[in-house]
Amino acid sequence: MRIGELSALTGVGPRLLRYYQSRGLLAADRSTSGQRLFDPAVVDRVRAIRSLLDVGLPTRTILELIDCVSEPGRLEPCATPVLVEHLKAYDARIADLVSTRKGLEALINSGPNAYHPARVKSEPQGELLPDLPR
């Protein structure tokens, strides 16, 4: 199938499909006129790539994992070690952000011009400083 057909079946634009191919995630043959020709099985592979991108994995990691995909949304056990490492990295980033947030909160609530502590909520939900003077 040509790239336009693959794009229509997957909802992924041709430019992005060419990018996936350049990253080694997709393979295509060429017609005599130079057009990309994809195997129909690539439809499921593109869907799997999209689902892995949707959970925040970079294409270089997806390249490592793509052979561990049995169907979109279902991974074989070979994917587990890589996914656990990414989960740990996200947990570390979240911990760093929480620490930064606490530091900002302490800064806001300190000093002679401190805002009333009740105005800065300790949970990151909604607007933090709703009624600051301008």
Walkthrough of the structure:
The protein is mainly α and 134 residues long. The longest helix is centred in the last third of the chain and has 29 residues, at 80-108. It is elongated and about 75 Å long. The protein has helices spanning 3-10, 14-22, 42-54, 59-65, 80-108; strands spanning 29-30, 36-37, 69-71, 74-75. It has a two-stranded antiparallel sheet. Strands 3-4 form a two-stranded antiparallel ribbon.
Q: Based on Cα principal axes, name the global outline.
A: elongated
Strand content: 5-15%
Low-confidence stretches: none
Specify Rg, calculated over alpha carbons.
Answer: 23 Å
What level of helicity do the residues show?
40-55%
Number of strands: 4
Question: What strand line-up does the widest sheet have?
Answer: 1-2
Mean pLDDT: 85
The rounded distance between the terminal residues' Cα atoms is 60 Å
Number of helices: 5
Order of helices and strands: HHEEHHEEH
Assign the structural class, choosing from mainly alpha, mainly beta, alpha/beta, alpha+beta, or little secondary structure. mainly alpha
Query: Describe the biggest sheet?
Result: 2 strands, antiparallel
Keywords:
134 residues; mainly alpha; 5 helices
Structure, briefly:
49% of the residues lie in helices and 7% in strands.
List the helices and strands and how they pair.
Blueprint: H1 3-10, H2 14-22, E1 29-30, E2 36-37, H3 42-54, H4 59-65, E3 69-71, E4 74-75, H5 80-108
